[in-house]
Amino acid sequence: MRTRRHSAQAHEESHGIDLAPMLDFVLNLLIFFIIIAVFVKESGLMVQRPSGEPPPPNADKSIAIQILQNGEVWIDGRVIDAAAVRANVERLHAVDTKAGVLIIADEKAPTGLVVQVIDETHLAGVYNVTFATGSE
């Protein structure tokens, strides 16, 4: 009789789940993903970070063009027509050929006007254009 009980208990204990194959599989997956991660090339943009050095003393000379929300274009403290941007930029650029253009556009300025001002500065021969946003 004892043999039957003992064999019945042994039979019940043998029904447990064997975890060894599952652990082998998980470790193989882990090794696979570690190896694959080494060969994955990340794509991105190359960014040149600005240096911590202060700008040269003549670096702040730029032709400031302000575009307001109501469509007014300001250069040198006076309102001009958008078609006159080219002539004014040519005149100011002739004084200082190293000067770039700083366009300060209001957040709600007409986009078409901003594009027109950019085109006029390019037609004037100035391609060093910087953008900033501002409000009235």
Brief digest:
The protein contains 4 helices and 5 strands. The chain has helices at residues 2-13, 20-39, 85-95, 111-123; strands at residues 62-67, 73-75, 78-80, 100-106, 129-134. Strand 4 (100-106), helix 4 (111-123) and strand 5 (129-134) form a beta-alpha-beta unit.
Structure, explained:
By secondary structure, the protein is an alpha/beta fold. The chain has a domain of 73 residues: Nucleotidyltransferase, domain 5 (2-Layer Sandwich), CATH 3.30.420. α3 packs across α4. The protein is elongated.
Helix proportion: 40-55%
Instruction: Give start-end ranges of low-pLDDT stretches.
Output: none
Intertermini distance = 100 Å
Briefly, what CATH class of the domain at 62-134?
A: Alpha Beta
Order of helices and strands: HHEEEHEHE
Structural class estimated from helices and strands: alpha/beta
Q: What global shape is seen?
A: elongated
Report the CATH architecture of the domain at 62-134.
Answer: 2-Layer Sandwich
Which fold does the CATH topology of the domain at 62-134 refer to?
Nucleotidyltransferase, domain 5
- Tally the helices: what do you get? 4
Gyration radius (Cα, Å) is 35 Å
Work out the strand percent: 15-25%
Q: Biggest β-sheet: count, sense, barrel?
A: 5 strands, mixed
For the biggest β-sheet, the strand order reads 3-2-1-4-5
Mean residue pLDDT: 82
| Number of strand elements | 5
